[in-house]
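Take a specimen:
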Amino acid sequence: ETCQRPRWDSRLRLAPDQENYKKNEEVVLSCIDGFQPSFTHIKCSSEVQSISHGKPVYREVWRGRNSTSDWIRIRSNVECIELLQVVPGTLEISSTSIKLNWTCRLPDACQHMRATCRLAVPLSPPCEAEEVKGEEMLHGQEGTLTCPSLQPFTQYSVTISLPPSMILFSWLVRTEETVPDKPEKLWLDPKKGSLSWEPLPSCKGEIIGYQLNITTRSAQDGGFLEIERLRLSSSVTEHPLSQHSPGNSYVVAIQGVTAVGAGAASLWEFQTNSSDTPHPPDTSCRGIQDISPSHGTAVLPLRPIAHPPGATREHQLIVAMAHNGTALEGACLGEPQPFNASQQPTAYVAAVLNLTGPTDFVLGNGTHGQGYHNAALQPGWDYMVLLRHVHRSQQAEKFTCVCYSFSV
C-alpha cells in the first residue's frame, strides 16, 4: 500500500519530501535552475508481480504523467536533464557582436524563453558603452542568439532564462579587440626639443605601442629632409626630435596600436621659430652649377650625412625625374631599382657611396659599380638627385636625404 522514496538522481527534489508515500499519492519533482526532471509529476502505484497459491503478489511501481497528462509506467531512472545546450563550436565573438546556437532538450519545458545581453561591468571614463536594450524571445527546439551593436573589448553577460526567474544559461564574455581611436592630443616642448602625447586608454583593445612618422624639413636648407618611422612601447609618451633647431618644421603622424593593428593616425604640424610669426620652410632643393650637357654629366658637391654611432656609412645616390614635395618624400622613402635603359624608371639608384668626407661626385659618367649604373644624363631633362642615408634598428627606420635639382 506504500512506496519507498525512489533512489534516482541525487539532484532531484521531491515535494512532499519523505521516505514513504501512500498509493496514488502525487509527488512533484524539480531540479536546480537550468535542469528539468524527465517527469515533473509521479505517483505511487502497484502491479501484479506473480501468482502465489492462487493469489496475486503485488510490487510497488512509480508512474509518471506525460505531456498528454496520461500516467505511464516509469521503466528507467528519472534524471535531471539540462534543458538548454549551447551547440559546441558555434560560439562566435567579434569586436561588435556575440553569436551562439542553442538547442532545447525538452521543448515542452522551453516555452517563453527570454535572452538578454547586458554590460557585465560599468565602464569608467573615458571609455563608454551604451547599455544593450531589450530582450529577445526564443522559440522552438533550436535557434541562434545574436547580440549585435556591442562595444569592442568590453565584458557582457549573456543570459537565457525562463519566467519568472529560472536561469538556463549564463555566460560572461569579452568582445574582441579592434584598432584604437586616434590620439587626440600631442604637443611640442620647445625647451626639451621633444614631442609628448596623452596615452591612449584601452577602450577598444589593450594598447601595446605607438607608431610615429616624423617628417623634418629645415627652413635654412630646403634640400634637407628627414623621415623617421618609429615603433614605441605603450609606456612611452615622449620622443626627442633628432634635428631640433630654430626654423625647422615638423609633420607628425601618430597612431595607437593594439594586437589587431594600428588605428587611425592623427596629424600635427609644428614649427620651431624664434618669433611668434610662422614662416613656411623652403622646399627647394640645392642648385648645381657644374653641368655639361654635351657629356651628360653634373658634378655634385657631396657631404656625408650625420648618422648615429655605429650606423653604416653607406649613402645612396638616387636620381628622380620630377621635382616637387611629394616626389621628394616618395623618393626618400622608396625602394628605387638600378637603372634600366629598356624602361626608363621614374627613380633609380645611380651609385652607392661609402662617404667619409666631402667629395665631388660626377653624376652621369656612365660608370658601373655594385650592380648600379651611373647612366648619362639626357639634355633637356629636369632632374632631382637625392643623397640618402638609411638607418634601421629594431624599433625605428630613419631616412635622411639631401636633394639637388637642376636642368641639363
Observations:
- The chain has four domains: 2-82, 84-174, 186-271, 286-407.
- Helices lie at 325-333.
- The longest strand covers residues 41-52.
- Residues 274-278 have pLDDT under 50 and may be disordered.
